Amino acid sequence: MDVGAGHPLLCVLHSLSQLLVLYVLFLVSDLLTPEQVVDVFTPTVAALVVLTWEWASAFPHELEWIWTRPITVVKCIYIYARYVGLVVQIVNCFYLFELFSTVPTPEHACRTWYIVLMFMGISLLLAIDFILMLRVYALYNKSTTVAIVMGTLGICQIILEILGIVRSMPHIPFDPICNSTDVPQELYYFVALEGLIQLVTWTLMFRRRVVLGSRSVGRIPLVELLVRDGTSVAVVTCAICFYNLPRTLHTGTIGVHLIFVWPITFFSGATCRLVMNMHCSELRPQPTSTEINLTSVFGITVDDP
User: Fold this and answer.
1) 114-139 as b/e, with b when 16 or more CB fall inside 10 Å?
2) Cα-flanking dihedrals φ and ψ of residue 241, to 5°?
3) Nearest to 66 by CA among 77, 50, 57, 52
4) Are 238 and 195 in contact (CB under 8 A)?
5) pLDDT on residue 304
6) Is the whole model's pTM more than 0.85, yes or no?
7) Of all residues in the chain, what percent carry a pLDDT higher than 70?
8) For the CA atoms of the chain, what is the radius of gyration?
């Protein structure tokens, strides 16, 4: 399949995304105050534009490498991350018109909106962490020890997030445009745990790269791909967490567009790119004494040269 820049399907998708954005901006100009546009809608529409462009750019590859393949857990995660993330951003843009139809916005409406975006952001973060953990699991040939470490971190992450939502959400106050005016203590634990997960997964990938490299002549392209993608995701994820936390402490408010809307765009796009890179890459590993078990984990076959 030709997936170049001039692909007709790609041009159509880009045109549709531009029309959607122009329609949203038209509604914004008529219904919202300048303060609401600057504080809420500008980043919200920008996040939708980025995610729509990313989806349109990857769609020809998606047709070839995702929709024509058998159903697997990884494929289901891809579809969830891609289309749930996109639908959430579209619905969020239009829901804001209803949410801000009266100012100050009722606190119960802010809380409901906040909970939905929090749940979606967390679920997409779990998706990208799960794909990274699967990559480490594959690199270590389905090691039981690695599975236990990754599983423990994942379970702790889920428990902490559930407890955080249950304990903090009923008591969080909001300002007239739905920014949270209190910083829940659970946020610190969440950021620390996510930083630990990224550190552990990256360290294990890098260590495996060194070990496999020492057993072969030169570097293994597929391992380089895994480490490169893992490093990129770790850097951006930690940047999101560690930028939002100091800013939140400084201002005393949690801006929903920063803590949820932009991260949803990143987690959705990055999860899909991680899966797509495994399918689209034509790189093949050099023969080694230790195989990299990708076939049963990601549902793809890697042939030795």
Assistant:
1) beebbebbbbbbbbbbbbbbbbbbbb
2) -65, -50
3) 77
4) yes
5) 36
6) no
7) 71
8) 21
Cα dihedral 280/218/298/80 (nearest 10): -60
3-state secondary structure of 179: coil
Closest to 297 (Cα-Cα) out of 125, 137, 58? 137
Amino acid at 175: D
Give the dihedral of Cα atoms 284, 289, 295, 298; nearest 10 deg: -80
Name residues whose C-beta falls within 8 Å of residue 83's C-beta, 6 or more positions apart in sequence. Answer: none
Q: How far apart are CA 47 and CA 57, in angstroms?
A: 15
Taking 90 as the threshold, does the pLDDT of residue 152 lie above it?
A: yes
pLDDT over 60 at 9, yes or no: no
- Are 118 and 165 in contact by the 8 Å Cβ rule? The answer is yes
Query: What phi and psi, each to the nearest 5 degrees, are found at residue 284?
Result: -125, 140
pLDDT for position 290: 45
Q: What is the pLDDT of residues 91-122, one digit of tens each?
A: 888 787 777 666 677 888 888 888 888 889 89
What average pLDDT does range 143-167 have in this prediction?
A: 88
Backbone angles phi, psi at 235, to 5 degrees: -65, -50
d(CA 263, CA 268): 8
Whole-angstrom distance, CA of residue 32 vs CA of residue 44: 13
Q: For residue 160, what are the contacts with CB-CB under 8 A and spacing of at least 6?
A: 186, 189, 190, 193
Q: CA torsion 97→103→106→109, rounded to 10°?
A: 20
Handedness of CA 249, 114, 273, 148 (dihedral sign): positive
